[in-house]
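[Archive record]
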Amino acid sequence: MLKAQYSHRGPVPQDVIEAVPFEAPPLQPGQALIEVLAAPINPSDLLTLTGEYGLLPPLPAVGGNEGVGRIAALGADVDSLRVGQRVLLPIGGGSWTTHRVAPAQGLVALPGEGDPKQLAMITINPPTASLLLSEFATLHRGDWVIQNAANSAVGGYLVQIARQRGLRTINVVRRESAVAAVRALGADVVLVDGDDLARRAREAAQDTPIRLGIDAVGGVATQRIAEALGEGGVVVNYGAMSREPCQISPAAFVFRDVSLRGFWLSRWFQQASPQRRAQVFGEIAHAVAAGTLSARIQATFGLDRIKDAVAAAAAGERDGKILLLPNGPV
């Protein structure tokens, strides 16, 4: 058994984490031993390693916050699960490990069909994309949404979910080489970022007011999204890829009634009812298992190559997610 552990934080994420051996503790009543099949490396994981994320676990800690596994053994008094069943790993607590012990009661069983690599990514990015589209503006079929970082994992899910809901998307990327991949997901419009983005976006929407803007970059990119919106539009920021504060001109607030909101999935988890959480994850799990919702995967790594995997995830230009396969190919 191996786990990817870090005992300090630093500016270079791959430098602080390493794979170390461990032994799983004996199962107590009500517990399950999970064999981890796949776990992604998300931007929030990298920020946790560098100490820049909004919620930091005590040290030492095991990296990773989501993934999918298979029940390897069950403790006494567990009758809701069976050995061999696939389950979502509990959010937080470390998913970059070959095995994990968790309370059986809180585990979410997954459909038997579907690619485990795709199912491993359903806990964070797809619900983020879904909720960005539903929680901040009342949208109707045919409405326009603009987003930057459209070639990110959240961006790709947002394109697919918006299309399934009948919404039209204007998708902003930073380089021409990213255009084709975003368009292949079903994007209506893909634009390369620039000073005249707002004009080009309004032209693409044929001067139909754009009601919702999604920003993962911050800095001047937030202003460009705001400039593209119609009167009363909402910009929702959920990331800071530029590592700069969001910039919006007072004119957008004062003269066009544009508003800026923030979204953090962890807070939504805390506030949403169990029924609402079950609804959101049920819809996503069904779509992923059916193959109608997916994310591009650039590369997979074994846990023994955790430093290489984290370095690849931290690289500036990627064409898909980096996944860990702690127990080998699935």
About this structure: The chain has a mean pLDDT of 94. The CA atoms of residues 198 and 228 lie 4 Å apart.
